């Protein structure tokens, strides 16, 4: 038996094999002695074309350059059109208009996860969350390519996609997160897929949000389980906010339901007093908050969630597993597999990959422990865009902290919310980042609700419109 890790055909290995095959079929004919006649060269080129045509279509596409306009300046390829990638594309052009910026995302349109909990409770419509990548690219003078990234060749500075490869001078990886079901005891791929389809977490794919909204508005009653993952996950306050929105929906629909909020952490991680007050005063008849509920398994047949202390049966659920950085980091050869979330090895202040100042990682896949919320991603992307623009000119930019601004809806009709604004600093004694200059408003009200929508509208305007 061979080593399992060595024998596994990864996307990265597949691409390198394909590229090697293409290199052989072309270099064989371009490196012949000068004595070769023009006719011989033409025949050789014809043979090479024939050899390439014999390859599977998918490999031939990998060997062809994507059909994009020729780069007029240094090309920056951004992988991932979330809050970080969209902001990066805009501000790279602002800081250096000579950059040729290409934003790649596999989704045809953008649907926002920040503010989506308010949509679940019918406080806003879907149009408020939905925006066009084409509009963003046109308004901010960059290129958008709707395609799927297959892998990378960092030595040749190439990104391989369904549309062919793209050569880059700089690359920014902002591909977001993936669920890690193994950390809640689900290792079997069949069980993982069933858990994802039946009880989606609602933080990776917008289709999950549609499924969750249907669940909340058709639930007939009984026990509804939600959970808070451990580790660093997308939007620290969001699971607690979602529990409030779910309870508000059930209350409005007059559904007899009990929400078990299983927190895999020892206590509420942010806006603790505000959420505790909401659970007690607004939803005491609905929400049963259970801290230190470390999920160790889910029995899909019996509809039971197991923790270290007890088993809980449910009628329906939203299971938000712990998360990890996108596996695209592994394909790029930059993931630290020894970390729980398989984040990239990057400079904590400059965001570039250690040993490669032409590849950067931002957003939810970055290694820094800052919030994985939308505002943080937007704020840090503005800074990293400056870093890349300065690097291209042989200059440096002084580090500055990203800003986190987070609104949490607590009640509906009218929408009421609370908020936090914070920065970060590095604690030299503890050798870690921590909150700095934090302003917390845990008394929810309608002004906070309207401010949450105004904030979201302003952020969408920044990323998509002039």
Report what the structure shows.
There is one protein chain. This protein has 466 residues and is an alpha/beta fold. It folds into three domains: 4-63, no CATH class; 75-176 and 326-399, 3-Layer(bba) Sandwich (FAD/NAD(P)-binding domain); 182-321, FAD/NAD(P)-binding domain. It has 15 helices and 23 strands. Strands 5-2-1-9-20-19 form a six-stranded mixed sheet. A four-stranded parallel sheet has the order 13-12-11-17, with helices on one face. A three-stranded antiparallel sheet has the order 6-7-8. It starts with a helix and ends with a helix.
Describe the strand arrangement of the main beta sheet, using strand numbers: 5-2-1-9-20-19
Q: Name the CATH architecture of the largest domain.
A: 3-Layer(bba) Sandwich
N-to-C terminal Cα separation, in Å? 59 Å
The averaged pLDDT comes out at 91
What Rg is obtained from the alpha carbons, in whole angstroms? Answer: 25 Å
The profile of the biggest β sheet is:
6 strands, mixed
Give the beta-strand count: 23
Low-confidence stretches: 1-9, 23-41
